[in-house]
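Hi support team,

I submitted a single chain yesterday and got back a structure, but I'm not sure I'm reading the token output correctly. Could someone confirm the output below corresponds to the sequence I sent? I've pasted both exactly as they appear in my results page.

Thanks,
R.
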Amino acid sequence: MPVRPLSISHQGQFPAITISFNLAQGVALGQATEAVQRSMVELGAPSTLSSSFQGTAQAFQQSLSTVPLLIMAALVVVYLILGILYESYIHPLTILSTLPSAGVGALAILMAFGFDFSLIALIGIILLIGIVKKNGIMMVDFAISAERDEHLPPEAAIRKAALLRFRPIMMTTMAALLGGVPLMLGTGTGSEIRQPLGYAMVGGLIVSQALTLFTTPVVYLYLDKLSIAFSGWGRSGKTGDERAEQDSMKQAAE
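Hi R., thanks for writing in. Yes, this is the structure output for that exact sequence:
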């Protein structure tokens, strides 16, 4: 008499079998999933055999697949808001130029202390987008006001902005940085979840603060020249009558 199974498990419409695994000490879930996939390739599984992760491993993979889209959506939203605020296509790029240094600092400190780029670390990167760009906002907003109200050239306007806004920039950055230190150094139950967030915040703020105070004025001046060049190309395409009419309206307004 043949031996038959009492029940057959299915995943959707197909027969399936579940193989569970646990994580060794000090091994991340991402490393485990990579090892499982590598083992499947080494075994030479036939094409008719399909495999997929379930449970926590599936949620981990799905979260990683949406990380680039999430960061891109955050950057697009920030650009649109700043573009509406300053009525410019160029100046929001000056503010967004402060973000790469923050991302590099966050990833560098996570790698230095042996932390993986987990979902909690991603939350820290998203927080950095909001915290770090205020350095550029403080400088650019003051420089634009100085150019418009005091009729200063771009070089003098951004220099004045960097001098007068240095203290509030340092104060707000240090407040956010010191707020992340307890998360970074805290111990106790659940500290392993909070630590990547603290390290990402502290590392990103340190590197971005050291760089953006010097790079933001330079980026502002170069993009201001680019904006003037674009506006000059737009004016060169107008007819003589349109330029004369625009000049007369400007003189009448003055």
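A quick pointer for reading it: The CA atoms of residues 82 and 88 lie 8 Å apart. Let us know if anything else looks off.

Best,
Support desk
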